[in-house]
Specification:
By secondary structure, the chain is an alpha+beta fold. The protein is built from 13 helices and 18 strands. It binds one RNA strand through α3, α4 and β8.
RNA sequence: GGAGAGGUGGCCGAGUGGUUGAAGGCGCAGCACUGGAAAUGCUGUAUAGGGGCAACUCUAUCGAGGGUUCGAAUCCCUCUCUCUCCGCCA
């Protein structure tokens, strides 16, 4: 969430900063609301002050058994009563205004960073670096063909179990998924991350706090009976974990890693990536997350990105790093580096991790603070996939495929998987 | 699902109608003592929003929302969360 004071004091600046995302905003209605609530606030606190004075006067009378001729108690009570009705009227008005303001501000995305490239869509994203060998190989098969041949997963039966865009992993497929999760968790643990295993169902407030709501309610599955949602990413519970806390600056940065299943409705993606492991309603992901001192979040951003990259390098998967342009930036992020893994069958890089610096945007929404020079300040949050498991499996299948139809397992994964090759189940 | 007990500041924990924003302790910060540290002592230390150059000052906040009252952490109602016991259950 943006600072409402900034909207009150300089709406033009807010419009300008958000315009680089390609959104045209007219904040003047919201601006007027913020001004009028300020006026109501002043008026209200004057009335409350007066009311408090009267109460104290009456209190001192009862306490000291003062001569009632100094003031008329009943007259004072009458006055207090009148003030009370005025106050409650004003409070109601203020509550309504406040709700409107919060609703509107919650819909505004984060400011892109100074360093975020300009641009309106993904074509203006900037490739920062590449890693690994993407040289052409012959007879490359897609990961879904490989998966089908080796019987690693099933979609047809699964559509009977639930519906399309779900998958059942089978045998070596399931083992590989499990191996990847464990390998990634262990790897991040060695880099100083504390492992959390959060719930998959989260409440509305948690989704709001990390920025998935109110704008993207279509993207998540909801359990209406219980007012809970299936979490679309562990970023949600990881943000909410320290909600409403003031964190001792000595403890910063806090670094967490969490495995979680992720659930996304993928509304509006009909026909896209219908085959394979790329776009599913349910997938597994290992997420890394930092709570950072505000002065150090830029450094933290480089570090969290390289921690995610490290996984790809250990798995020997070719990838590139892309600096996401303002128009393509996620709602809560001010700067995002995407890691894109090489998928030789389609001769493309596909997103496998998104490492974002949200600055104080999520921290303000979730009220997560720290102390700097004895002043309470919102801290910064950063998140990154480390990595999306399904897409990692797709990349391993495609990059490790061999002429005889088997798939070579990356060395680091052998102890987890228990074999250096995937053969047919 | 049934019964009961609770939710107070960064943390623990007093506080049942009137200067209580809240004792005490811990933690934290500063100062003193020290060669340095530990221990000790002193001082300070909630959050948000107004006003003021500032000292300072006003308002709100004791799980949330209502109610009673001139006045509520304290009394009443609703909700919510946590804990204990019983039941059920991986």
């Amino acid at each position: 969430m943006l600072d409402h004071r900034l909207i009150r004091e300089n709406p033009a600046l807010v419009e300008e900063k958000l315009s680089v995302r390609g959104i045209k905003l007219n904040l003047s209605p919201l601006h007027k609301l913020t001004l009028s609530i300020k006026n109501k606030d002043i008026e209200l606190s004057n009335l409350q002050s007066e009311s408090n004075k009267i109460s104290k006067l009456i209190g001192s009378y009862y306490h000291n058994q003062e001569d009632s001729s100094v003031f008329d108690i009943n007259e004072l009570k009458r006055k207090g009563n009148n003030l009370k009705t005025e106050i409650s009227k004003l409070e109601q008005i203020k509550r309504d205004l406040n709700k409107q303001i919060i609703d509107e501000i919650s819909k505004l995305p984060n400011f892109p960073s100074q360093n975020t490239p300009a641009g309106t869509d993904e074509r203006q994203n900037i490739e920062l670096r590449k890693w690994g060998d993407t040289s052409n190989k012959k007879n490359i098969k897609s990961h879904w063909d490989i998966g089908e041949k080796l019987n690693l997963f099933d979609t047809k039966r699964t559509s009977r179990i639930s519906k399309s865009r779900f998958i059942t992993l089978i045998g070596n497929g399931a083992r590989l998924e499990r191996a990847l999760i464990n390998f990634m968790l262990d790897s991040h643990y060695k880099n100083g991350y504390l492992e959390l295993m959060p719930p998959a169902l989260v409440n509305t407030e948690s989704l709001r706090g990390s920025g998935q709501l109110p704008k993207f309610s279509n993207e998540s599955f909801k359990c209406h009976e219980d007012d809970l949602w299936l979490s679309p990413t562990a970023e949600v519970p990881l943000t909410a974990f320290h909600k409403d806390e003031i964190i001792n600056p000595k403890l910063l940065p806090l670094k967490y890693v969490a495995y979680s299943p992720c659930f996304r409705r993928e509304a509006g993606s009909y026909g896209r990536d219908t085959k394979g492991l790329i776009r599913l309603h349910q997938f597994n992901k290992v997420e890394i997350y930092w709570y950072s001192h505000p002065d150090q979040s830029e450094e933290a951003h480089s570090q969290i990105t390289s921690d995610a990259e490290n996984i790809l390098q250990e798995l020997d998967l070719p990838y590139r790093v892309v600096d996401i342009c303002a128009g393509d930036l996620g709602f809560s992020s001010s700067r995002t580096f995407d890691l894109e893994v090489w998928l030789p069958s389609s001769h493309t890089y596909r997103e496998i991790s998104s490492c974002s610096n949200c600055l104080d945007f999520q921290a303000r929404r979730s009220s997560i603070r720290t102390k700097i020079d004895n002043k309470t300040t919102f801290l910064h949050t950063l998140n990154g996939s480390g990595l999306a498991i399904g897409r990692t499996m797709a990349a391993i299948l495609e990059n490790g495929q061999q002429d005889d139809g088997t798939v070579k397992i990356p060395d680091v994964l052998i102890p987890y998987f228990g074999s250096s090759l995937i053969k047919s189940n």
